[in-house]
Amino acid sequence: MLTKKQASLIVSKLMGDIPYNINIMNDLGIIIASGDSNRIGTSHRAAERAIKEKKIIEVYHDTHLEKKGTNEPIIYEDKIIGVVGITGEPDEVRPFTKIVKTVSLLLIEELNIYKQKEEDRVAKKAFLKQLIDSDGVYTESLKKEARENYKLELGKLYYGVFAEGKDVLRSVAYKKEVFAWHEGYIIFLETLEPITTRNDELIIISTHEKNIGLILQNIKQTHLMLSFFKWKKKGIERTDTYYLANLFSFSIPPNQDLLKKIKEAAPEYAETLVCFARNNKSINDTSLELHIHRNTLNYRIQKIEEITGRNPRIWYELWELFYHFAYHFMNEED
């Protein structure tokens, strides 16, 4: 279908380069875009004839019903979806009519490809959500969708292989369906062959599971944890290596009052807190890693305590801070 928006875009782009008035009509012969805005919404007699007779209609004399010009049907997938008309002597405007028609078809093709990709993306996203919500118990309709659309046999054991770039996964298994997930992409493999990566790639591999929803959650939590702690290394990581990643499911509801305070502190002090926790609360090691003076670090820790009411030097308050900083980080990432 040729939309008014598409037609208007074509006319506006080409009117500056073509010294004749351009009209684009829909499949009923109604003008939906024109260099002469007064004609939009009116019937175009020659276009109606072009649609009915399925051929180019050229008008050589102005009448009270028609103006001189060439009118050529736009045929897409063996169907007339509109007509291009250019006003002027047919011998002069005929080449321009073909140019406008070609541009129209290219734009329609490009927009349809984009539309199909967007529909596929939305369908895949909804499919993954169903897998998570099903918690490993799959309906027959979901099994059918997985088998027919994505060549997945739900109920079988799969590995999830995640990467931040799609090309990485193509090199691992180019025939497998690639799904957008979290901040990257994921494929599902029944067996796991040795995987090699370049120095600039991070790959996360899940455990072998029947519950694909669990695979998705574990990979997301592992990636969040690696990002939060700034542990993201290039190479292969496995979800079962990091038990701590389970905290990133955030099954415990956050303290909303503390979370508000964390939002205030996070932009300036999140990195300091994470580094402090990663270095076992060592002032020396943390200040060295951050390349700041010990006094500066002590000042930052004091500010965190003043803003949040939690002392990072006390281990259980540090964990409370860590949990809420991580929760804030997750929502900022999403």
Write the SSE topology.
Layout lengths: L3 H11 L7 E4 L5 E4 L10 H9 L3 E3 L9 E8 L2 E9 L2 H45 L5 H11 L8 E5 L2 H7 L6 E3 L2 E6 L12 E4 L6 H17 L6 E4 L17 H23 L4 H8 L3 H15 L6 H19 L1
Parallel strand pairs: 9-10
Antiparallel strand pairs: 1-2, 1-5, 3-4, 4-5, 6-8, 6-9, 7-8
Can you walk me through this structure?
Residues 2-131 form the Putative sugar diacid recognition domain. Residues 270-313 form the PucR C-terminal helix-turn-helix domain. Pfam families: Diacid_rec (PF05651), HTH_30 (PF13556). By secondary structure, the protein is an alpha+beta fold. It has 3 domains: 4-101, PAS domain (Beta-Lactamase, 2-Layer Sandwich); 145-247, no CATH class; 256-333, PucR C-terminal helix-turn-helix domain (Arc Repressor Mutant, subunit A), CATH 1.10.10.2840. The chain is 49% helix and 15% strand. It is built from 10 helices and 10 strands. It has a 5-stranded antiparallel sheet. A hairpin with a 2-residue loop joins strand 4 and strand 5. Helix 7 (256-278) runs antiparallel to helix 9. The protein is elongated and about 90 Å long. The model has no long low-confidence stretch (mean pLDDT 92).
**Helix run count:** 10
| Whole-number mean pLDDT | 92
What gyration radius follows from the Cα positions, in whole Å?
30 Å
Largest sheet: 5 strands, antiparallel
Overall 3D geometry? elongated
Overall tally of domains: 3
For the largest beta sheet, what order do the strands appear in spatially?
2-1-5-4-3
Q: Low-confidence runs (pLDDT<50, min 5 residues)? A: none
Order of helices and strands: HEEHEEEHHEHEEEHEHHHH
What structural class results from the helix and strand content?
alpha+beta
Helix content: 40-55%
